Amino acid sequence: MNIENNTTRPLFEKVKDDISARIKSGEYPAGSKIPTEVELIKQYDVSRITIRRAIEELCKDGLLVKNQGKGTFVKERKIFRKIEHNMSFSNSCIVNGMTPSAVVTQRTVLTKNSPGRVPHPSLDQDAILYIQRVRYADEIPVMLENNYFPFTQYAFLLTDDLEGSLYDLLKSHGIIVGCSQNSYIDALKADSKQAQLLKIAPGDPLFLLYTEIYDTQNQLIYIGQEYIVASRYRFNYENA
């Protein structure tokens, strides 16, 4: 490809724009390695200085990241979410211009003697519905979602399609999410099972978001424990 120099715009800006367009189109997907300097010089028929300037600008813009000794990679996009805002994962993706999806990995009923039950007065009943899903943004796994529901009220979730928005599904059953309570964020390292499901390395950093979700009548809908890949998510806090 020959970048024509028939305008007053610098060559590095034209190279930058072309690489940026390839990233946004998916030709260079998130996490992938872009061609080397030598390959880009041949591809665009420009000098090494021009290529280096274009790469530097793309790194400043947050589209690329250099990995010493390994090359230059397309930076994985992060989902930005206000920490105080009760927003579903699906809506968080949409706000960030990404496509949400989900894969159910576990869906089972826990009895009082089952290991892994979350202690909570509203869940003190014979059966709890446990649902685990991997949540994706643009087909990249971002979150391992573990939700615990009072089984009697939410038995329909055993058979309903859970590949879309949980909040929208609940709304279709006349259940409106009102607020979250007792939420907190912790930091931890991924164990081998979490790493496998999220396609990361064991020991990679995770956020743990614990929250209790209530309906508009202040009745518990579920307790959530979300394990979020730290490199793919960012919580924003804004002072009032």
TrEMBL record:
<dbReference type="InterPro" id="IPR000524">
    <property type="entry name" value="Tscrpt_reg_HTH_GntR"/>
</dbReference>
<dbReference type="Pfam" id="PF00392">
    <property type="entry name" value="GntR"/>
</dbReference>
<keyword id="KW-0238">DNA-binding</keyword>
<dbReference type="InterPro" id="IPR036390">
    <property type="entry name" value="WH_DNA-bd_sf"/>
</dbReference>
<dbReference type="Pfam" id="PF07702">
    <property type="entry name" value="UTRA"/>
</dbReference>
<dbReference type="InterPro" id="IPR011663">
    <property type="entry name" value="UTRA"/>
</dbReference>
<keyword id="KW-0805">Transcription regulation</keyword>
<protein>
    <submittedName>
        <fullName>GntR family transcriptional regulator</fullName>
    </submittedName>
</protein>
<dbReference type="InterPro" id="IPR036388">
    <property type="entry name" value="WH-like_DNA-bd_sf"/>
</dbReference>
<dbReference type="GO" id="GO:0003677">
    <property type="term" value="F:DNA binding"/>
</dbReference>
<dbReference type="GO" id="GO:0045892">
    <property type="term" value="P:negative regulation of DNA-templated transcription"/>
</dbReference>
<dbReference type="GO" id="GO:0003700">
    <property type="term" value="F:DNA-binding transcription factor activity"/>
</dbReference>
<dbReference type="InterPro" id="IPR050679">
    <property type="entry name" value="Bact_HTH_transcr_reg"/>
</dbReference>
<dbReference type="InterPro" id="IPR028978">
    <property type="entry name" value="Chorismate_lyase_/UTRA_dom_sf"/>
</dbReference>
<feature type="domain" description="HTH gntR-type">
    <location>
        <begin position="9"/>
        <end position="77"/>
    </location>
</feature>
<keyword id="KW-0804">Transcription</keyword>
